Amino acid sequence: MQLYASKKRKIMISGLLFVGMILSFFDRVAINVGIIPIAEEFHLNTSQTGILISIFFVSYSLMQPLGGWMTDKYGARVMVTVSLFSWSLFTVMTGFAWSFMSLLFIRFLFGLGEGPFYPASMSTIRDNFPEEERGRANSFFLSAQNIGGILGTALAASMVVAFGWRGMFTIAGILGILASLGI
Questions:
Q1: How confident is residue 166, by pLDDT bands cut at 50, 70 and 90?
Q2: Sign of the C-alpha dihedral, residues 33, 35, 36, 41?
Q3: Per-domain boundaries in the chain
Q4: Partner of 175 at 20 to 30 A CA spacing, among 2, 63, 114, 167?
């Protein structure tokens, strides 16, 4: 018989994964909001902005299978923490980019950092929730994607107006780093 987490621990795990997924989607939509001032600053054409937005998904999709393997090898908690910390670090670094190529490289690394988060989160839910509770735990976790997208777009736009695109990425990254230290 496998023992699962206590009710209090399950609530904490659900809450932390929920916050992590909101941060994940905030960081994903932030580039879409910030791309106009970024393109203006670096004199990017339409193709360059498309590549800049897309490169994250290339490395993210490449890293997910490897992230699943790393989760099995090192454990879900380690990989959730490492993933959140690393993608948040690359979010901060986005605010310090100096050229199109530096942004492209940082966005590629960002996808590598975020890739393990989803497999590690699913593993965390599997390990801590009995089968009859996993549907609710998964749906709560996945609902954060939409919430992160909605809040992220509005918040990122407000932050770009208040702090500029560089400030938006720096602040968002710092919040993610702080969240990773709490996990």
A1: very high
A2: positive
A3: 8-125+134-182
A4: 63
Q: Left, alpha or beta for 130 (phi > 0: left; psi -120 to 50: alpha)? A: beta
Q: Output the six-digit token pair for 53.
A: 């937005």
- Nearest-angstrom CA–CA distance, 134 and 124: 10
The confidence score (pLDDT) of residue 183 equals 58
Query: Span 8-125+134-182: which CATH code?
Result: 1.20.1250.20
Distance in angstroms (rounded) separating the CA atoms of residues 66 and 111: 12
List the one residue out of 44, 16, 34, 13 whose CA is nearest residue 110: 34
The pair phi, psi for residue 44, each rounded to 5°, is -90, 145
pTM value is 0.90
* CA distances (Å), origin 140, targets 3, 119, 144, 148: 22, 16, 7, 13
